Amino acid sequence: MFKTERNKRLFHIFSNLFIALFWGWTLYIQYGIEYQSSFEISFQRVYMLVLWIFIATTIGRIVYHALKLRKYNKRKKESKITMA
User: Fold this and answer.
1) Which of 8, 2, 16 is nearest to 61 (CA)?
2) Were both Cys, which of 12, 27, 33, 80 would link to 51 (CB 3.0–4.6 Å)?
């Protein structure tokens, strides 16, 4: 699907960023909603906790792919230097 490792990592970085923004928007909407029953309030708290976990995991994945991209770029530069 991807011609180079760089394209693969960039795709994953931007797609995960989009996903994190979507979950952040969902979390923002949940903070604005006020429920009446204790069951709904408890459910909302659990749901918002899950959203925070998803967002943190997605940011972790972005960092992982950024580090892999940096490592790939460093190896590519080193290989160009040794070939020259």
Assistant:
1) 16
2) 27
Read off the tokens for 62. 């972005």
Q: What is the largest CA-CA distance in the chain?
A: 70
Count of beta carbons in the 10 Å neighbourhood of residue 9: 21
Cα-Cα end-to-end distance for the chain: 30
Q: At 59, is the pLDDT very low, low, confident or very high (cuts 50, 70, 90)?
A: very high
How would you class 69 by CB atoms within 10 Å of its CB: exposed for 0-12, middle for 13-18, buried for 19 or more?
middle
pLDDT of residue 18: 97
Let me know: does 62 contact 16? Beta carbons within 8 Å. yes
